[in-house]
Amino acid sequence: MTGGSVLSLTAQTDHESTSVTAELDRRGPLAVVASMTGVGCFMAFFFGATLANNLVPGFEPAGALLGVAGVLAVARSYWRSSTRTARDRLSRVTESVSRFLTRPGNVTAGGERAAPTGAESDPASNA
Description:
The chain has 127 residues and is α+β, with helices and mostly antiparallel strands. The chain has one domain (6-126). The chain is built from 2 helices and 3 strands, in the order ββααβ. It has helices at 27-55, 60-102, and strands at 6-13, 18-25, 118-121. A 3-stranded mixed sheet has the order 1-2-3, with helices on one face. A hairpin with a 4-residue loop joins β1 (6-13) and β2 (18-25). The protein is rod-shaped, with a radius of gyration of 23 Å. It starts with 5 loop residues before the first strand and ends in a 6-residue tail after the last strand. 13% of the residues are buried. Mean pLDDT is 81; it is low at 109-119.
């Protein structure tokens, strides 16, 4: 696991080569970030409306929307940063496996040298 994400490595060999697939499942961290963002938006909505009413009566909706927008911007920034970090870690793992498989002396089940084909996927990148 990397920061709450589940890393899955799959290696498959055939008579010609070895292929390695790395997959990073970030649904757990997404659920945590989404729930915390929801709580933060709820609190910012009421605090922003109350604060705007105290400062300039009649601007409660604007204060509420600004509070929610601020929370959403912070959450998006955090998610983007953590996704970038997770992708960097996934790349390092894939490179490490690739280097291991291409070292002299590493052979496939058929007795041939391993030739990796690295494929990466991040299901949460589309979220």
